[in-house]
């Protein structure tokens, strides 16, 4: 027998993984307890999205992580994967929580419309309810402020089969928004118009603060422009409108589904969709 004093070729195929144990795939089923190796956060699986998993620790704190590697079970590394049963049998849901209609083409737009106050409102509605609105053929437009609502309604001339639903920020008793809404209801198109709103100063507040690591949204004095005040309080750049836009993208990016929004907004949007799709 020939003895090779230098052993095998260290550059042979597989030399980098020699001696390493393969990391097993583990299905991310509900209540499975895992630890995120990078942060040390340990919790049970409470929800699964397309590419993320939500964990809840023993104190009730929740965090979301990307599916894949970087997790530990009993100190051993694992790769979390989507359960096969979920792929095979579960009926997919949209971000709004409704059942997804497989391969449904977008419907031809209805004559009825939903109007929201601004671009941020429209982007949030699209992210959560976009799939449902396309199936129903509902177009969302924005007002750039509620001050022009009466003019828009008059130009649109709503009627039977041509309704308008309006989502208004800060619709609370005594506010400017509530006075405008009351005038619209009393006007000639009142039967074909539904104005609803949420109590928040801006639609930003309809995102649950926990999604941004906050216990509550900061209270901003009326003398300070609200969005600038929010960014300043949170330590975010706020020198110009580009900074405000980036702040909104950060907030919007934290929203994954309807569960990340406050009920005061959820109910009103669903109410508007029902109103403009009623035959």
Task: Give a verbal description of the structure.
The chain has 279 residues and is of the alpha/beta class. It is built from seven helices and eleven strands. It has a seven-stranded mixed sheet with strand order 1-7-6-2-3-4-5, with no helix packed on it. Strand 10 (164-168), helix 4 (176-186) and strand 11 (193-197) form a beta-alpha-beta unit. The mean pLDDT is 86.
Q: Please, what is the oligomeric state?
A: single chain
DSSP summary, beta strand count: 11
* Largest sheet geometry: 7 strands, mixed
Broad structural category: alpha/beta
Bulk shape: globular
Arithmetic mean pLDDT: 86
* Rg over alpha carbons: 25 Å
Distance between the termini: 90 Å
Strand residue percentage = 15-25%
As residue ranges, the low-confidence spans are none
Give helix % range: 25-40%
**String of helices and strands:** EEEEEEEHEHEHEHEHHH
Sheet with the most strands: spatial strand order: 1-7-6-2-3-4-5
DSSP helical segment count: 7
């Amino acid at each position: 027998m020939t003895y090779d004093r230098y052993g095998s070729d260290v550059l042979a195929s597989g030399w980098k993984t020699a001696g390493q144990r393969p990391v097993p795939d583990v299905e991310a089923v509900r209540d499975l307890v895992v630890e995120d190796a990078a942060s040390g956060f340990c919790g049970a699986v409470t929800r699964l999205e397309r590419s993320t998993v939500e964990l809840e620790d023993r104190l009730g704190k929740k965090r979301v992580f990307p599916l894949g590697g970087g997790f530990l079970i009993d100190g051993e590394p694992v790769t979390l994967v989507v359960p096969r049963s979920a792929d095979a049998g579960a009926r997919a849901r949209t971000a709004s929580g409704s059942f997804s209609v497989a391969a449904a083409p977008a419907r031809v737009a209805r004559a009825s419309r939903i109007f929201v106050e601004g671009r941020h409102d429209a982007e949030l509605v699209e992210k959560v309810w976009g799939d449902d609105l396309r199936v129903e053929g509902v177009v969302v437009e924005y007002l750039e402020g509620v001050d022009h609502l009466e003019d828009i309604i008059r130009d649109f001339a709503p009627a039977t089969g041509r309704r308008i639903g309006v989502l208004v920020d800060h619709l609370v008793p005594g506010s400017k928004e509530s006075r405008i809404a009351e005038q619209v209801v009393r006007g000639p198109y009142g039967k074909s118009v539904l104005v609803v709103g949420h109590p928040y100063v801006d639609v930003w507040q309809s995102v649950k603060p926990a999604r941004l690591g906050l216990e509550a949204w900061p209270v901003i004095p009326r003398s300070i422009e609200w969005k600038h005040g929010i960014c300043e309080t949170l330590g975010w750049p706020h020198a110009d409108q580009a900074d405000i836009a980036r702040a909104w993208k950060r907030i919007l990016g934290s929203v994954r589904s309807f569960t990340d929004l406050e009920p005061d907004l959820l109910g009103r949007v669903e109410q508007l969709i029902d109103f403009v799709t009623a035959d």
